[in-house]
Specification:
420 residues, D-Maltodextrin-Binding Protein, domain 2, six-stranded mixed sheet, four-stranded mixed sheet, globular
Length: 420
Amino acid sequence: MMRSSGTLAAVAVAAALLTGCSSTSGDAGNDKEDGPVVLTYWDFMDPSQNNPRAAALKQNIENFEKENPNIDVQLSTVSFGDMISRLPQAAAAGQTPDVVKMFAPVVPQIAAAQVYQPLPDEAKQVTDWLRPADKLADKDGKQVAVPYDYRTCTLYYNDKTLKQIGAAVPTTWDQVADVAGKAAAAGYTGFGTGFSGVDNSAIISTFFDCFMSEVGQDISDKDGKAAFDTDKGREFADFLVKLKKAGGMSNSVVGDQYSTVTDGLQNGTVAMAVLGTERLLTLQKANPDIKSATLPKASNGSDTGSTFGWTLGIGAGSKHAKSAWKFIEYMTGPKAGALMATGGDVPTRSATFKQPYFSTPEAKTVLDVSKFVEEHSEPHTYPDNWIAIASGLAGAGQELYLNNRSADEFMKIAQDAANK
């Protein structure tokens, strides 16, 4: 049966590395389908938590083990930040977990650290991915991961708050700054974002990623260097400057992070924010006043953000690649995907949407989000220094807010930091 180690502190992770996550699992080196195999699996989500997404993960692993009684999944809950720092260490020691869950923008960076092994030939037999999966590859172009869920950015807004201040839902970024200023004057945080470096600067980098897709700006050049300090890219910084001048940012924006803004939307103190679509079901259950809309249009008229999400891949040190792929295929397959959708995640394969769940009223939100992702986002290849780019954006944001930096200065600070 599934064994979960719970949330790992740094000491626990280090201990896992010393004991050899995958090389000591099951029948090392043979990967016998008819013999006992222990698969080590790192996921950021704790299946013991009391929420629909955690419950779906727990049930899916248990269902997989029932169908594959010779495979025992040993799950370790590891925060995203710990994964980023610990996986390269594990790879260097030959002790990567058998299966790795990783945020799509960071896959190239983790692949460059030799954390993955290429997916087996069996992976090519899965051809019903809803979005192209070949961008999840290493520098040699070999695919190392598959999409676990899909998401993009959306504009969240508190309908009650906007009606209170007499504002329509903004459809351009200039309108967002204006409405945010009015909401701030009424005592709210007009537009929620954050320049904290905690959690790998997830909120500002996600927003930036989708904005660059809107304006059609590549984030890096052919040599992998950050190269977004252009006239098109500067439109992002122009918005942040206008937002600050309008008073639409929180006084705590320097320290705010993804969870801070999410909490603000839930409790009604934040009027608007740009977050991932995966939060829609949770936010609307917590606060029925929360609505969502397409991204405000950039100056070129585009409202198309980026497609991203979490992925699954096989660790470089795994001695059980066949069993690991069997687990990955199951977790991204129709039955597991339908159960995952009950927690608000958007499945990645077309076969999943033929499951009975998607004919029920409860599936409407996920179906709507899936359609939104398809119509308003596009996947793209990420550079292998995404964390440095995210960190640079957070630092530049702090400079903008605390020291009144201009849009030009913001872009230069962010790009220089990424390339340092």
